[in-house]
Structure formats: C-alpha cells, structure tokens
Amino acid sequence: MSLSQLQQTIAHYRAQLKAREAQAEQALEAAYANTLQVIQGRLNLLYQAIDIQMQSDGNVPIEWLYEQHRMEVLTSWIENQINQFGALAQMQTGQLQYQGVQLGQQAGQWLLQATVPAGVNFSFGFPSLDAIANLVGATQAGPLADLFSGFGAEAAQGVKDALITGLSLGYNPRDIAPQVQQALGISRNRALTISRTEMIRAYRGANLETFRANDDVVDGWIWNCALDRTSCAACVAMHGTEHSLDETLDEHPNGRCSMIPKTKSWSDILGPLGIDTSDIPETSIDVQSGSDWFDGQSEATQRAILGPKYEAWSNGDFTLDDVVGHASDPIWGESIYEKSLKELVKP
Hints:
single chain; 347 residues; two-stranded antiparallel ribbon; 5 strands
C-alpha cells in the first residue's frame, strides 16, 4: 500500500467527518439564531428605553441601568437563554464524539488492513469498551462540561460590560448594539470550535486505541499533515515524525492532522511463530519529513504557509522545525502551536 493510497483513505474519512460536522454546525447555527432572536426582542425594548431617556435628558447615567433591577433582570434572563443553548451544544458535541469514535475505529481498521499484503490473512483486534467509553464521555464531566455550563454567565457578563462601556462613552443604542452582539456571539463561536475539536479528538482517540489494541503488530504512529498551502507551519514541520503508542496527536484546535500506523516488520510479527516471511513483501510506510516537503515547494506556497515569517526563514534565521511550539491548557490539554516571529527571532 503506497502513501498516496493511505492519504486517499484518510481523505475519505476526513470527508465523512466534515459531512457530520456540517450537519451539526447547521443545527447549532439554527439553535443559536433562535436563541438570539428571543434575546433580541428583550434587548430592543432596552434600546428603546435608552433612546427615550437620551431624548429626554440628553444622556443616560450608569445608575439608570440598575434602576428597577433592569441590569439584574436582563443579564439573569440572558444567562438562562444562553445556558439552554450551551446544553444543546453539549448534547450535540456528545453525538459528534460518538460519530467520531465510530469513524475512527473504521479508519483505524482500514489503515491496518491496508498494511497486509495480498494473499496474507491477518485479523486485527478492536479497542476495549472502557477505552471507547472514555472517549465518548469527555463532555459529560470535567473542565469541558464546565465550559458549556459557563456559556450563559460569560455572555451575560459580556453584555453587561458592553452596555456599561457604551453608556459611559455616551453612545446611542445603535452604537452599543454591535458590541452586545459581539459579546453574545462568543458562545456561538466557541460552541462550533468545541464541537468540531471534540469530534476530531474522539476520531483520533479511536484511531489510537485501535492501534494500541494491535500492539503486537503496530510499533507506533506517524504524524500526517494535509500538506497544502493552508496548513500551518507547525503541522507541516510535524509531518513524518514518528511517535510511540503512548503518545497522542496533540494538535491545535480546528486542526486537520491524522495518524498513520507504523507497523512492525513481518519477520518481527510472524517470525516468532515459526513462519517463513521471506516471500512476504514489507508494507511499512516511509513518510517524507515535512521539512523536506516544504523545501521542495514553490516560493508562493512557502510564503502562504509561513506568512510574514518567510523572509526570516529564507535568510536562515530559523528552520521549519523551530516553528513548533508546545502549550498546555486546562481544557484543551497539550497542543502544538506555530511560534510567532518574535519567539523565533530574538532581537
């Protein structure tokens, strides 16, 4: 099996993930639009009251927002509405995780089967139920669940800050409204990012658990980047690096990288069983390093990937491998990131 054929398999399952992601995104967008429509009605009443107050007194003091518990009632109500959206997003993400695990298992099995030469019968194992349950349950408890449940409080605080800032600066409702909308939109954007990232995480986790369930055959895995002009430089640099089964693919949120199984030689697999493997062709894959691939690309592609860092790289101030940074987050865990030019080139 050639690398290009493995890439086609990865692309096939990536398309499957994208299709499910699009369906979930459509559902989340519709839910958010409904939530925003309900909230907008209440905000419009407030904007009208502010407008009337401005026409009457010329300005609206901050204290006015707190009279008759206006701010308290509004923010509490917004928090409740956004929390309902957060609960739906959490449920949707759980469904995506389950779908990601299913596709990840299928892809893992297919990638392993692709390493078997024609005429050789070999049966691969499946991950344990406990391992799969752990992958699907990531949104039900812990920091990620807390993040969903915190959507409402975060949005309510953002609306409160926008209103206070706007009135402090003497803005009219038309100028305040976009800032309020931006504060409300954070929950939508984060829900979309979380749902996609967790589906990919579950997919990769199922891949890895499938490889681990076959550690008598699989020696590790190889980092595989999409390798196009839209790839980030850090992911390109990681392409082709080899990792043990104890390691996870710790990419950044919204990433597109995947794992290719690194299988043992057939003599290592079958030799201890007394089977002659001299007539069985080796099927392990040699993957070109991301740096070598990058060096062979056109200047236009290199510039698209490196952006403003291209000139410093071309001058030899740093190598592509230097671009990879490592970060740790209490919610997202370990991840790589692309270092900034300031981090790479010290004054």
